UniProtKB/TrEMBL annotation:
Residues 22-269, 282-527 form the ABC transporter domain. This is Monosaccharide ABC transporter ATP-binding protein, CUT2 family. It comes from Sulfitobacter marinus. SUPFAM superfamilies: P-loop containing nucleoside triphosphate hydrolases. SMART domains: AAA. It holds the Pfam family ABC_tran. Keywords: ATP-binding, Nucleotide-binding, Repeat, Sugar transport, Transport. It comes from the Bacteria. The keyword Zinc does not apply. GO terms for molecular function: ATP binding; ATP hydrolysis activity.
Amino acid sequence: MAMTSEEMSNDPVAVETLPPTLRLRNISKVFGATKALDNVSLDVLPGEVHGLLGTNGSGKSTLIKVLAGYHSPEPGGTLEFNSDNVKLPLRPEDFRRLGMSFVHQDLGLVPSLTVLENLRIAEIALAKGGLINWKHEKAAAKTILERYDVNIEIWRRVDELSAVNRALLAIVRAFEDVRRRSEETGKPGLVLLDEPTPFLPRESVNQLFDLVRRIAEQGSSAIFISHDIDEVMEFTDKVTVLRDGRVSGQAETKTATHDDMVELIIGRRLEKTTTTKTASTAKRTVLAKFSDISSKTVKARPFEIGKGEIIGMTGLIGSGYEQLPYLMFGAQRADAGTVQIEGQSPIVLSGLTPKAALEHQFALLPGDRLEKSGVGSISIFENMLLPGITDYSARGFLNNAAMKKEARRLGAQFEVRPNNPEAPLGSLSGGNAQKVLIAKWMKRNPKLLLLDEPTQGVDVGTRDNIFKALRAAAQQGMSIVCASSDAEQLEAVCDRVLIFARGRIIDELTGARLTKDEIMQACYGSLSKLTETDRSQEVIES
Ligand SMILES: Nc1ncnc2c1ncn2[C@@H]1O[C@H](COP(=O)(O)OP(=O)(O)OP(=O)(O)O)[C@@H](O)[C@H]1O
């Protein structure tokens, strides 16, 4: 059963006899006017997989950064590790000494180095006189991978590995660091996993979870951060929920429900989203027809997008769907194919540039937001309104006050927290920055909005609001492409979903078939649907 902070005692875990591996009491962190952490207390027991949930900006990453020694907490808090009082603030390397290790979302691997070098990076860097005993390093790397029953070729460069193998490697490395430290100290360690699973297909996520579970059975613990409530419920023993920097509640996972979790996260129950989906394409006016888009890894048959239609694109990772928004916008050069907009002469996609796409009123929200779509160092209002800045200038002067007012209105609509248009975009949490960038493109009211994983990293309440905003825009005539691995999102928001396998469109789901389960089934069953001809022309190496 979930408990709110009022129902909890000061001592959150009193049921187990073993002392907690990590015990935090009254940890606070202030950034200017923002209380990112407000007296957070939390225990993680040995062998426990502990979920950390919360809305965007609720303080999850700040807590991890305090533990990594990156942020100094405010005075007054305490940290115990295996019952030892640890002096705060932690210094950057303290976590290693204590037996903690981190897997951040970017995984922290060096892509140009091999698996072996990534696993043994510390030993290789410290090799006496620069002389590396490769025979010894090879045997050590193999032993580590065998220990965790992970089968990855040690001489492969990390940038040649599949997404799941990269994630597995990062987790194995983190657990191995902790295991070795535990051997020295005789005490359990702690691995902190900060959203390591986005974009991974279900079976790969299961593989990662099995690995973490096996390691936890040996006594070390894990903290697991994710916005995917079902994933957290399935995978963890206990959950702590943060809201506005405070612990809003804790729950034993096996007795809590999904709705309990939603309520602890956003402070209210979610109404069922009732989305009005428009009629099928046959009855729509066509906005654009994309014919034979082809690249090194994609060979898509012709498809049309109706005015006011939301089309989902999905498949297993690497099936090609994730490249479609970029190919359709000219952000990635197509080898062949055309787009015909509103019945005009076809435009050759190999010559389409993002500038030309913008002139045709296309917009693209890339998956890699801050890097490709926003400028972290400039203000939120400038980021939001930059594409239409001329609307706010007269006789050479910019009307800053009007821009800020509009940005504040959009911020409230998309629940950007804190809603301060003057703050730099880079000061927002990842999910809040994503809300700003969605608002930016919705505001431009493009004819065709191309989205790559639009709600990745966005919390459950705002996700619902984004769905509603997308549906409302579609009803006003905006056409939207949503490339996503999130079947639940596709079911909630799309009129039609195209399923990709090995670069081809192999199925199309509409009407009663457009459900989360059918989407997942279509993705997993997708390869068997490739015809013999498709197989002989496969465009992606298996
Ligand atoms: N370096 C910083 N300077 C100013 N404010 C910051 C800084 N880092 C975080 N914040 C603020 O602290 C609050 C907590 O942010 P944090 O990144 O911890 O949230 P989060 O729960 O990890 O969010 P998300 O789920 O979106 O990643 C937010 O309001 C954020 O804007």
